[in-house]
Amino acid sequence: MKNRLRVLRAEHELSQADLAERLGIARQTVNALETGKYAPSLPLAFKISKLFANRSKTSSIQTRRTMKPLNILLTLAFLIGSCHSAEAASALKPTATFAVGSTLVDKYMLRQAQHDNSNAPALILIPGLTDGAAVWDGTVAQFAPSHTIYTLTLAGFGGTKPDKAPLIDKAVADIASLIAQEHLHKPVVIGHSLGGFTAIRVAEEHSDVIGGAIAVDGLPVFPGMDTQTAAQRAALAAQMSAQMSNVTAAQFSAFQKANVIPYLTHKENVDAVFAAGAGADPAASGEYMQEMISADIRPALAGVKVPLLELAPFDSTLDPYNPQSKFASGAEKLTYYKSLFTNDKNAQVQLIDGSRHFVMFDQPQAFYDAVSAFLKTLT
Q1: 236, containing H or E segment
Q2: Dist CA 106 CA 335 (whole Å)
Q3: In this structure, are residues 158 and 102 in contact, taking their beta carbons and an 8 Å threshold?
Q4: Domain 5-83, what fold?
Q5: In the chain, what's the furthest Cα-to-Cα distance?
Q6: What DSSP string describes 313-333?
Q7: What is the SS3 assignment for 297?
Q8: Could you count the other beta carbons within 10 Å of the beta carbon of residue 64?
Q9: Where are the domains of the chain?
Q10: Which of 54, 67, 167, 197 is packed most tightly, with the most Cβ within 10 A?
Q11: Could you tell me which of 213, 154, 199, 181 has the C-alpha nearest to residue 375?
């Protein structure tokens, strides 16, 4: 049973232990509720509803004392109502929004995280091609209670102003500047797709200032381009970039929607992912695509001095039949992904079964577990 309990807890800056104490239940029960492994009894559901209704910052003392049954029922429905995607569930608002270079940054710093987890590394989340920071909403809700989080919107995405090329170089430089500006101690950089490629570059070029990096289906060379020459990659990249750039806004929007659908295992998540890409500039998207496809940064992996994790999706209903990148089994795909990281002897590749490109939407709990396990290795 999916619910918004984790989001509500984060909004009110409560740890699982805090919530368990207030409800008179075990912390493990709170975890089971948040992960959908346990459905609350009606009395417990009403108890949760009353707790969060009474803690609302917008409610007066008198309102809290005289809350009508209808209000409680509405809050209860809000709490346990259907939420198809963990990434679409977050209602947290950033504590600060600012620009670093041409990159827009949303900062989430809850008092609970600040006081109870002073040694926990900050997380820097980089979205993929065309996506704004909203693609990480569920991840923010999951980790904000224990980590300071920075979500990025790259130039030209999310309605932000496009910048001049080279765009990925500037994004990497902005991330390094963010770390220095915020005085971050060994943050962990997590990126999806284009953001994953960017996270790998940050690990290659700035291992001295980060604690680790996670790439979510973002690779040091575009899949299938590992056997091509630099000239062949450049030619294909220019062709794809031109196709993406020379379209109207309506055509580009239709292109985005059509390309989102095969990247998800759950159709109910299509609208949320599509919305995360709203406001992307077609020309900027084409430039990012050209820079990424023409690149092969595998040789520079030898310079990575921090833990690096690649999360690889596999879907048995798609991968064995995908004409663009066909893998008969998860083991075959895992072997291929590992082959792209041979220059970093310590890099790890983990398969997330039952997922496609948007791993954090298709298998959110498996994604959160993988990130949590990685973070534990850094302590």
Answers
A1: helix 230-245
A2: 36
A3: no
A4: 434 Repressor (Amino-terminal Domain) (1.10.260)
A5: 72
A6: EE-TTTGGG-SSS--SSHHHH
A7: coil
A8: 13
A9: 5-83, 88-377
A10: 197
A11: 213
What pTM was estimated for this model as a whole?
Answer: 0.78
Residue type, position 67, single letter: M
Domain made up of 88-377: CATH architecture: 3-Layer(aba) Sandwich (3.40)
**DSSP bridge partners of 103:** 100
Sheet with 348-353, side-by-side order of all strands:
96-100, 103-108, 149-153, 123-126, 188-192, 212-216, 308-314, 348-353
Distance in angstroms (rounded) separating the CA atoms of residues 195 and 175: 11
> Could you give the CA distance from residue 78 to residue 174 in angstroms, rounded to a whole number?
38
Side-chain-facing half-sphere of 163: CA atoms under 13 Å: 18
> pLDDT for 78-131, tens place per residue?
343 433 344 444 457 899 999 999 999 999 998 655 555 568 999 999 999 999
Q: How many residues does the chain have?
A: 379
Among residues 177, 172, 226, 212, the alpha carbon closest in space to that of 195 is found at 172
